[in-house]
Amino acid sequence: MNPKPLNLTHFDESGASRMVEVGQKAETPRMARARGLVRMSPETLELIRNRGFAKGDVLEVARLAGIQAAKRTWELIPLCHQVPLTGVQVNFSFPGPDQVEIEAISKTIARTGVEMEALVAVSVAGLTIYDMCKSVDRVMELHGVRLMEKTGGLNGDFYRNSSTPGSANLVMGGTPE
Fold first, then answer.
1. pLDDT score of 61 more than 80
2. Alpha-carbon distance 124 to 22, whole Å?
């Protein structure tokens, strides 16, 4: 028994890869927010917060790397469109004594969304933190890179219920967490 095939838009009827045609879609405002976590030793986090690395301000370099990565997502992910970003923000918080949480927000007015740009920004910011700190902490880990919210487009708005790990709510015209 063959399962019913999923409607995966990046494949044609024969299973060949393709870039989705968006030329007939209207340009609309779109936004995506993603998060991820870098776990490290408390001593490493203290060095980051006190700007104690000879390489410079770890979080500012990671912020710039995340922004630059969002702008180049179309070059990294094979079937992504080149999206004219109108803004990218990368922010950091410290939910625990051994954690840096990364949040990226990407915005555009375009025919396709910017979820991948936000996810790539978080990923590269996290990898940059690792790169800058690996000399003192090689057991750092990146965790839970995920889409938290997206607005705009035909499929409606999406908001992840952040209180339950792995849960998600697709809400049309709903409210974020």
1. yes
2. 27
